[in-house]
Design goal:
This protein is mainly alpha-helical. The protein has four helices and no strands. The protein folds into two domains: 35 residues, no CATH class; 37 residues.
Length: 73
Amino acid sequence: MQNNTVLKNEGMRILADQLGLVEAERFIALMRREPFDYTEWQRELYRDVSLDTFLDNATRYRERLEDAGSGNI
């Protein structure tokens, strides 16, 4: 388990990489501004995704991270 600072930095890096820095900041502002139930949000986000698809995507993501760590990307 990562400490909180490492987790926040990694989360921001992922958001910025995927959305761009401006949109990542906008996303964070939106999440802070509104009442937010993470569990309910996550249920809705993945409602139409099968467990097999979710696990396949997670496995591919982990493999990409491992490749990036070894300089293979």
